Amino acid sequence: MSSGPVGVALVGAGVISTQYLTALSTFPDVRVLAVADLDVERARAAADTYEVPAAGDVASVLAIPEVEIVVNLTIPAAHAEVAGAALQAGKHVYGEKPLALAPADGAKILAEAQAAGLRVGSAPDTFLGAGLQSAARAVAAGAIGEPVAVTAVTQGPGPESWHPSPEFLFQYGAGPLFDIGPYYLTALVALFGPVRRVSAAARQARAERVIGSGPKAGTSFAVEVPTHVQALLDFTSGPSASATFSFDSSVSRRTIEITGTEGTLSLPDPNTFDGPLRVQGFGEETWRELPVTGSTAGRGMGVLDMARAIRGGTGHRASGELAQHVLELMSTITEAAERGTVLPLESGAPVVPVLPDGWDPAAATLT
């Protein structure tokens, strides 16, 4: 078995790569060895900025023997293809969300990894941050009694106002459900386990959107997916949830509230790694702040947990199996909205243990 820091390569040098490179370059238990992109010059620029030793196209990066984990930051339409190439090259793969565009593609990735003795991980890893880890501990400690119901909302005017190339966020495999939904749904599945059935409704407010920033500002593009989705979820463990995912609101709102038999817990935005975390019991007139402890290191925590698990021979938390259940959940929500019916889910979801006290990304644990 190998020892010491785990070699990592990034495939995709787009907007999100800067967040990964910023975090991963500070973790002593991983070494960022290479950056790849279809635009090789963009890959080289990212590598130079973060002092990464190698850059190039995908094939050249996959050929580096010391690379053990490939971090797949390509657009959703390329997730399955790049994951497959990484696995064929003998690399573990950790991808941005969603795991793939369709559950069948996600299942193929997992099957190929299992056959090769390799691991699959997937974003989001925000549920490993201090805010949602503290929420998980509060629920487990009975802060609101027995959880009964959840209200989850993410709404706003859409990313075309700030993203310089937002077209892919309105194509198949994205939209508010597949782009932002994974943060909310992963947080809930990590807390309560798998969803057993769903119903849903979906709408599209406008057939075209206009880019609001960058060199393509003023350019219109077609919208291919629903931009407002509402879903009802029943968890196998008992609670139910109502969830709204929207790019159609002039008012921005991001919240998860868990109602229990003894009070309500207000969680932080699941697209962040910190608090606040608040609780209000029956008979109380105001919210009380709960302590938030843990790491706020940012995107890449899931890669680090996976790297440490590889060395230690344990399970990693932001797993492909968790991502596959969330992918099936989103696909089933889409189908339920199209058919106007209640649909069951077939896949399960692994138990996600809370990070141990003192889990520190900045500490070197692999020697």
From TrEMBL:
Task: Identify the keywords attached in UniProt to this record, alphabetized.
Answer: Oxidoreductase
Q: Which InterPro entries match?
A: Gfo/Idh/MocA-like_OxRdtase_N, Gfo/Idh/MocA_oxidrdct_glycsds, GFO_IDH_MocA-like_dom, NAD(P)-bd_dom_sf
Query: Would I find Oxidoreductase among this entry's keywords?
Result: yes
Q: Matching Gene3D superfamilies, A to Z?
A: Dihydrodipicolinate Reductase, domain 2, NAD(P)-binding Rossmann-like Domain
Keyword Membrane carried by entry: no
Which Pfam families does the entry mention? Answer: GFO_IDH_MocA, GFO_IDH_MocA_C3
| GO molecular function terms listed in the Swiss-Prot or TrEMBL record | nucleotide binding; oxidoreductase activity
Going by the entry's taxonomy, the superkingdom of the source organism is recorded as Bacteria
> Any coiled-coil ranges, and where?
none
Question: Any idea where the GFO/IDH/MocA-like oxidoreductase domain is?
Answer: 133-265
Q: Where is the Gfo/Idh/MocA-like oxidoreductase N-terminal domain?
A: 7-120
Q: What is this protein called?
A: Predicted dehydrogenase
